[in-house]
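Handout, page 2. Input:
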Amino acid sequence: MDVVKIIAIIGCFALAACAQQKEASTVFPEKNTPQGSSCQGTRMSDQFIVRWEDGHLSLETDVDAESFSKNFIEPKIQEIKHVEFNKIISIKKPVETENMDTESLSREDVADDWGVSRISAESVWAQNIDGSGIVVAVVDAAVNYDHPQIAPRLSKNDLEAQGKDSVDDDGNGRVDDIYGWDFDKDQAKPSPIKDPSEDHGTHVAGIILAEAVSDQKMRGIAPKARLIPVKFLSDDGSGDIFHAIQGIEYAVARKANIINASWGGSVCSTDLKNTLAGLEAKNVLFVAAAGNGDDTYHIGIDYDKYPNSYTYPAVFNLSTQITVAATSFTDYMTSFSNRSFSLVHIGAPGVDIASTAGNGIKKMTGTSMAAPFVSGAAALLWSAKPNAKATQIKSALLNSAEVIADKELKVSSRGRLNVAKALEEIRRLV
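Output:
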């Protein structure tokens, strides 16, 4: 027998031995981690997220982890890559500004579109740069498809739009997803939102790309970008990790350039992190809200000092991720915004932001409102430089952040978003 065959046989035995060593504990490491430990969030003890070796994702159930390991994982272990508990996400509602006493400038003296002016968006629009050709996915609660400033901006799935009713024309497992998908209710179009005060998804979408209409001064940062609405949260802001991952993967499959995530929780899911880490290879930018501090007083958390209070996905700090803090009328960081010199990247307006809600306009406050300013700015840059990489868009936004004397922000860039300066930077980089 020649040397090559001997080496091949040895290799086969080695591989077989490795395969035999694959155990339930290696693919399901969370099983022996106590509930309530740091970074776990609230588990669903009978729901399990399975990432298969072929790449697809599924949600499985059993009475508990022990039964699931024995009845499901062990018989199929060679086909399974990773397992974790499904976990609950319950996002904080936007901050009630009437309970804040940290602003030194009267809100009556500030225009509704103050944030748009503050980041110098008008000077970019004047150069005929408006987000055309760029697709942004809002992975969030429901978006009102029928809002007059949102409806014209919806990105159409042509295979479904031109196909047959009640048929999965594009073969993605979702019937009639002409515009987006509701992963919470597993349907094409979300149910109507009864209370505009709960209209988180529509408000976020409007900040990014609401189209200007004659009777509304308000318009989005990138008013000609296209929107993929991806719902995984209920109207009250509750959801889970499995549906969040499904929503992100759906957005990528629909060719989104930018994903806005104005949500988070104390759930450091391995599969969520791996999914987001894979966005660089897809050339997708992921924009996350830094979070609004604690539930009672909305006092911002310093992630550099309190790692046990991390919010995810905000602190993942991945190559094509930008995490956004909220700034005020006076260009200081708001008291409620989470912060970090290493894990939060840039500030953006987040107080009394007027945007779409219900069938009209409403003001909301929070880092949920700050993140879509950055998503909209990224869409403007990408429409100016369509061949740019997501990492270059990120660099341009952070390198051009406006650092104001005596108002340096506790973020890695030390400054607040300025899209006009970012445009100069992307032109230099690309």
